[in-house]
Structures are given as structure tokens and as C-alpha cells.
Design goal:
The chain has about 425 residues and is of the alpha+beta class. Helices cover about 20% and strands about 20% of the residues. Strands 1, 2, 7, 8, 9, 14, 15, 16 and 19 form a 9-stranded mixed beta sheet that branches. A hairpin with a 2-residue loop joins strand 4 and strand 5. The chain is globular.
Length: about 425
């Protein structure tokens, strides 16, 4: 018996050591953007929006070209939450893709509650790894602002590949989309912000000098229109009065679209938007080379507001659930269903520092938009809706952009 016991122990040790560790329509069909005496589409300086978060620059992460399919192989490593927020879903661990396949393939009809909690945790962990204090406690606009600053700490570098560009376009929690799209306070009428300066608004071509009220200490030249160009908000008409008056004429398109059961907020003017394009984000279920979301920051005195926009790079069509704002009397619009199959064109852009005949509208790509955000961080732009037939499409609860008014594009921009 005493000889058998050591033999059994040897067998057990041998067995344990053998176990391995788990391893768009033509340009002449679109109404030209309204260009004021001088362009009204700016860029805000980085100092205009203070950041309380550390200035750590994470390394850009490569992203594969497609959003589908969702393979079923078993993952072999722990979840990297930074990869979750920066990589497209088809690169996520297989068990996560399987768990949330319904949301990833049909985001607007699937139950998004568990997925939203997962993605919110992913952002909390990524921000914590980036050195953000109390990252796991951030919610609402505090979380949104932290994500924006996180994106700003990952500068777009010249010469990046398309895959590297895609790593600058994260997926946001649905709860943040809900917050922006259902918050009435985010509706800001088009207005001028006195004292706010916009980079890049220099009239190199005609060297016109703004009136004295639009001059200030940050001007680089007498013909610098940076103070004049600080226009923000919806509507491009500026004649509808105060924010309180705007709320009185606001309209909800909840008869046709809701988000998490809450009414999506619209505004009863054709909703062009002027503001700072502070971040691009992934539209759920859509390859970002086909269309991306644009997060636009607007100001109303000391208050910061946000708008979301749908920016298509290829032609598309409406679904039966998409809403349209239909012009009825003057500037006032009402919400109707667009109907399935209405064409949605691609987005075009022109340089607003030039006259229209010198700067025709030209189709843009994701690379153009990323390039623009590299040379002008937070570029201040005017976004115009598709108003063909006097209807503006709201897809997934946000306005579809038809054209963009930019400023002082470099000579090689369209190459």
C-alpha cells in the first residue's frame, strides 16, 4: 500500500502538468447655401471649451473595412474595452457579437437596454484607462463631454490609412443619442455669439475688412472675419427671437419617431445647423464609409448645446419609418412620414470664403471630412438639409445633411 500512494501522486502531478492554459442629386438641383456678406461658418479655438481631463494621447487603433458578418468562433482573451469603443463591432470578441447580434444587425428595432449598459461600461473603462478621474461615475452630458475630450486627445495625423481614420469614429451609447435627440434645450435658434472668435475665417481673396463691432484682439489681420463668423443654431434666419420664443414654436415629430419611448424633438424651421463639428460617430448598423454621424456643438451664452446630424457619402433611400419636415406656410414646417424609397443624396461641400461660381459644390468622402477635422480641429461649419421638394428627411431621429459650407480649404483638398 505504501508503494501505491507515491505512484498515484506521480500520476496526478503528471496529469495536471499536461493541462494547457486556455488559450446625391446633381449640384444644380440643390438650393445654394445662403452666404452672408461674408461667410457664416466658423472654427472655435481649443481654449473656448475648457477641459478638466488629462491630456494623454492613446495610440490609434486599426479598424477592418466592414461592419459584418458576425462570426461565431470562441474568443480567446479578456475584453479590451478600449478596443470595444474604437473598433467596429465585427472585430469584437465573438461571444459579445453573438450576445448583441440583434442590436448590431437591426439597432432600431431590437431591445437596446443590455447593449447600452455594456457600451456605457466600455466607455467608463476606456476613459478610466485614459486617466479620467471618476470615469465610472460619469453619466449624461458629463459622459458625453468626457468622450468628446477623449476624441480630442487622439489627434488625426497626416497620412493615416483609411483603417486608422476609422478609429477616430467611435460608437456611442444609445442613451447619449436619446439625451441629445429628446432634450428640448438642445434646440437653439440661429444667432450670433458676440465676442466668440472662429479660426480660419480670413478673407485672403478680397481682403474685405469687417465693421468695427466684429473686430477684436484675436484677429490676425484687418481682413480677419473670425468674430463675425461666430453663428450658431438651427434655421439660418435669426429672426424668430429668443430661446423661449423658439420653444413656443417647436414641434415634436414623436407621431412618427420615438427614441427609447421618448418623443424626438424637432424644430419648425427647415433645420440647417451652424456650429462646431466636434466629433464624428458611428451610425448604428451603418458602415462609416457610407454615412457617419456628426456631433455639432453650439453655444447660447455660457450654455453648451449639441445637435446630431446624419452625413451620407453615398446615395440612399428612406424607409417607411423615416420622418420628413414638410414646408407648409413660410418657414413653418410640420412632420409627416417620408414614405419608403424617397432618394437621399450624398453630401456636398464648398468653400464659403469664395464666391459660389468659384467654389462649386463637390461630393465629399469620409477622407475629406477627416482631413478637414485635421487641419481645423472642431471646424465651425454650416450644414444644409436636403430640401428638394421642400421636405427635409430625419433619419433615425436626426436631420440628413445635403451640403456643407466650409472655409479656406487647402489647394490639395480635392485631390
Amino acid at each position: 500500500m505504501t508503494k501505491i500512494i507515491p505512484f498515484i501522486l506521480i500520476l496526478l502531478l503528471t496529469s495536471c502538468s499536461a493541462i494547457s492554459s486556455p488559450a446625391k442629386p446633381p449640384a444644380d438641383t440643390l438650393p445654394p447655401p445662403t452666404i452672408l456678406a461674408t461667410p457664416a461658418s466658423p472654427v472655435i479655438t481649443a481654449s473656448a471649451v475648457p477641459s478638466e481631463t488629462p491630456t494623454i494621447t492613446p495610440t490609434a487603433t486599426e479598424v477592418p473595412p466592414t461592419e459584418t458578418p458576425f462570426p461565431s468562433e470562441t474568443p480567446t482573451q479578456a475584453v479590451n474595452y478600449t478596443d470595444i469603443v474604437l473598433r467596429p463591432p465585427n472585430e469584437w470578441p465573438a461571444d459579445i457579437r453573438t450576445q448583441f447580434n440583434a442590436v448590431l444587425t437591426d439597432p432600431w428595432h431590437a431591445d437596446k437596454t443590455e447593449f447600452d449598459a455594456f457600451l456605457t461600461r466600455a466607455w467608463h473603462e476606456a476613459l478610466k484607462a485614459d486617466g479620467v478621474a471618476n470615469a465610472d461615475r460619469l453619466t449624461g452630458y458629463d459622459l458625453l463631454n468626457a468622450i468628446v475630450e477623449y476624441a480630442h486627445r487622439r489627434p488625426i495625423v497626416e497620412g493615416e490609412t483609411e483603417e486608422q481614420m476609422l478609429s477616430h469614429i467611435p460608437l456611442l451609447p444609445f442613451s447619449l443619442h436619446e439625451l441629445i435627440r429628446t432634450d428640448m434645450n438642445n434646440l437653439v435658434l440661429f444667432h450670433h455669439e458676440p465676442g466668440r472668435y472662429v479660426e480660419g475665417r480670413v478673407d485672403y481673396l478680397y481682403k474685405r475688412v469687417p465693421s468695427e463691432e466684429f473686430q477684436g484682439p484675436l484677429q490676425k489681420f484687418p481682413y480677419d472675419w473670425g468674430y463675425y463668423s461666430a453663428w450658431y443654431g438651427y434655421g439660418f434666419n435669426g429672426g424668430l427671437g429668443t430661446h423661449e420664443q423658439m420653444l413656443m414654436i417647436s414641434d415634436q415629430i414623436s407621431d412618427h419617431q420615438e427614441f427609447y419611448g421618448k418623443p424626438i424633438v424637432g424644430i419648425r424651421v427647415i433645420p440647417g445647423v451652424a456650429g462646431d463639428l466636434t466629433m464624428l460617430f458611428r451610425l448604428p448598423g451603418i458602415d462609416p464609409r457610407i454615412a457617419v454621424g456628426g456631433l455639432v456643438r453650439m453655444y447660447e451664452g455660457n450654455a453648451v448645446r449639441y445637435a446630431e446630424l446624419f452625413i451620407p457619402f453615398e446615395g440612399n433611400k428612406t424607409t417607411a419609418e423615416d420622418a420628413c419636415l414638410d414646408l407648409t406656410v413660410g418657414r413653418v414646417v410640420t412632420a409627416i412620414l417620408c414614405g419608403e424609397g424617397r432618394p437621399i443624396g450624398y453630401t456636398e461641400m464648398r468653400d464659403s470664403m469664395l464666391l459660389a461660381n468659384q467654389a462649386p459644390l463637390r461630393q465629399i468622402t469620409l477622407a475629406h471630412l477627416v482631413y478637414l477635422m485635421r487641419i481645423y480641429p472642431d471646424p465651425h461649419l454650416a450644414f444644409y438639409p436636403d430640401v428638394e421638394g421642400m421636405k427635409n428627411v430625419w433619419k433615425d431621429g436626426i436631420p440628413v445633411v445635403s451640403s456643407i459650407s466650409a472655409h479656406n480649404l487647402p489647394e490639395d483638398f480635392w485631390k
